[in-house]
Amino acid sequence: MTRTGETAGFAALSLLVCAIVFRGAMWGGTLLAPLDILPDAFLHYRFMDPEADGVPENHHIIDQITYDLPLQHLIYSAYRSGDIPWWDPYTYGGRPLLADAHINGTDPIRLLCYFTLPFELAYNWNLILKSLLTGVGMFLLLRHISVPFENAIPLSLAYQFAGCFAVFFGHPWIQGSFLYYPLLWLALDIGLTRGFWRSAAVASLLSAAIFYSGNLQSHLYLGLFFGGILIGVAASDSAILPRATGLLFLTGGTAVLLAAPVLLNQIEFYFLSTRAAAVSSWSWQDVLIGPCSLSAAYPWIFGTFKTIDLSKIVRSGSLGFVLFTGTSVTILAVVGIVHALRTFRSSPRWQTSSTVFVLGYFILVSTPVVHLLYTRSSALAVLAIVLLAGHGLQIVAKWDIATSRRFGIALLIAVSAFVICIHGGLIVYSQWKPTITDAFLTRVEANDSSLASRALRTLQVERFSDEVGLKNPEALASIVSAILLGIAAVASSHRVRRAACIAAVSMAAFSAILFFSRYIPAQPIELWNALRQGGSAQKNVIAMASPQGSRVQEVTTKLQDFVFPNAMGALYRLHTVHGYSALQPVSMFRFPQNVPPAPSDWIADISSSNTGVVSLTHPIEKPGSRLRWDGPAPRGVEISGETANTLSVVVQPGAAGKLIRTDTYYPGWTVSSAANGVDASVKELPPCFSWIHIGESVNPLKLVFRYEPRLLRWGTTCAIVGIVGVVAMLYLSTRERRII
Q1: Nearest to 565 by CA among 612, 616, 606
Q2: Cβ count near 81 (within 10 Å)
Q3: CA 26 from chain center: how many Å?
């Protein structure tokens, strides 16, 4: 079978598995979002499901429902109406939107889906296509390094549905950027020996796609990836180190130019935001993150998202699951690492780089650097684990009978002892269950978390034994995969050994698929329809705020009491003082220290309490929080229209003065007058407002505030230079082939 035929065959199999995993989401019967969290945990969302019992299927993925989903709906609507959603007018009193790269709003696959499908299907297929392409890319890379076809299939599926992509499912930029890494590695590896210019062009485009799909945090992962590639080359094939260095610098530099329209805005937002990366919160507990991550071979030992999660002791949840690809895959990766360390100088460069990625991850997450890179960088280690597992399979197949049997017997004994210890520990746990339950429920009483309900915590304690032990189907499948690997090692027949090895990695992939299927959210589309309509509390506030885009301030301390929690106001196109974002602008929500807060009538027109009761700061017919007139004589001001990037205002005739806008100030806003067409920059009014001067007028004056990132034109120029560079590389590649 040709390589093209093999890839098509795997893609068809992967699509079939996706159909089983995602099911109704493929045709819009369900939405891949944790909609059940809202009626289960939030006071004003019971209307979505009056029979909700307070126990969502997966409460760990809350950011997806209160942050990602409402903002994606806003982004989708803007794109479909012909706007590029540079600005979010609804949260934090207004803030940059696409510059907040956690929203993944410039992802090429997302854009393809948004411009071709209705929102519900677009939201789902953006995630489904990423999963599919992740597997295909890994399959091509595995076949490139000569992993046999029958082994490459389950290993690719293990990577496609790896624990990191499940745990970070609500952070779409993780898989959105990492799906390109196998293809990037493939392009770079080819370019190290042949087709330099063509490989550089392809690698530049793939790297740029990573920038467009990720954020400032994940951009750092690309730097780690390039560094690991260089280490592998330096250790295994130093003669081509100059070529490798040139290839990586050319690729990285061109990718930065291509992605400059978004990169420059992301960097600017970082420096103008109220949050900066800090490592001061690091403590001795963080040292345990690396060692505890070794539980990747059997991550259930620390509990799962359905139970008490003991990994919270080291302040990092899902420790082993972020590296999970199946027990036998992990064991085979260890075999590959040991072999690479023993033959460091003679190992293939990809094997050396893979070893660096895995060992480097365990080291980095046990240092203060974990607060810069987070355990989200685990996807890079998972990529390497799967490659090393493919190599480990080939090593096991080549062992002599004596060595193979020693390994197999030791593995079977270790697995048996582990299973016995696990179930012995569960017997002890059952004796302490009442004490543990009381401790957890006592903690709930004093906990303000919206998800720390008595029903949820009680059920978590009850579920622990079923989740950690072999009653859990995915845990059982993973243990069976290790047993099959042990059987393969003790087999004297190479044919039996080969079949058992394939069965072992297939069972490992099956366990990863099971966990992925249970972790990711898939809720009935009816819940989404109910959410969009809103309940009585939402409708009450919206009805009062809708006449002129009034701004709402929620007065409550508990997230579960918000009528519009986090970024939910964006779903209803409601202007709120609060919001939710990794990077926050200087706004009324968080005034700079030592700066007195603004008067209440500057902040909002409507105040909402935790009971859903609303009060008015201004007469609703004349909202005044967002626009204020400052002059010797009053002039009427009203909002006549608003889009993602514009605000249209009408100023009534009168004497000269200042028009103060209390929406969040940010560089890039200009104002133009429809009367004379004169543009003017918007001036800052510390700490977070803006103003413009308006002269005397005898007629109503129509103004249009317009936002465009101030570095966009510079970024566009850089992108054009990058495109020219890629075209030049492709031209040089044609000459390169002629010379050869």
Answers
A1: 612
A2: 10
A3: 21
Whether the predicted pLDDT of 641 surpasses 80 = yes
Cα distance between residue 57 and residue 20, in whole Å: 19
Which position has the token pair 């939710």? 580
Task: Give the orientation angle of helix 216-236 with respect to helix 349-364, to 10 degrees.
Answer: 130
Residue 578 in contact with residue 516, Cβ under 8 Å? Answer: no
Q: Which helix (H) or strand (E) holds 91?
A: none
Domains and CATH numbers, the chain: 627-709 (2.60.40)
pLDDT tens track for 325-345 = 999 999 999 999 998 888 877
Q: Compute the distance between CA of residue 700 and CA of residue 677 in angstroms, rounded to an integer.
A: 15
Residues whose CB is less than 8 angstroms from the CB of residue 341 and which lie 6 or more positions away in sequence, other chains included: 355
Question: CB-based contacts of 70: which residues, under 8 Å, 6+ apart?
Answer: 567, 568, 569, 570, 571
pLDDT-derived band at 310 (thresholds 50, 70, 90) equals: low
Look up residue 71 and give its two tokens.
Answer: 């903002």
By the 10 Å C-beta count (0-12 exposed, 13-18 middle, 19+ buried), 602 is classed as middle
671: Cβ–Cβ under 8 A, 6 or more apart, which residues? 679, 680, 681, 682, 692, 703, 704, 705, 706
187: which 2 tokens? Answer: 């392009």
What is the Cα–Cα distance from 66 to 564, expressed in whole angstroms? 9
Is the full-model pTM beyond 0.85? yes
What is the spatial distance between Cα 7 and Cα 4, in angstroms, rounded to a whole number?
A: 5
8-state DSSP, 65 = I
Q: Quick check: 714 and 92 in contact, CB under 8 A? A: no
Share of the chain above pLDDT 70, in %: 91
**R_g over Cα of the chain:** 28
Check: CB of residue 132 under 8 Å from CB of residue 18. yes
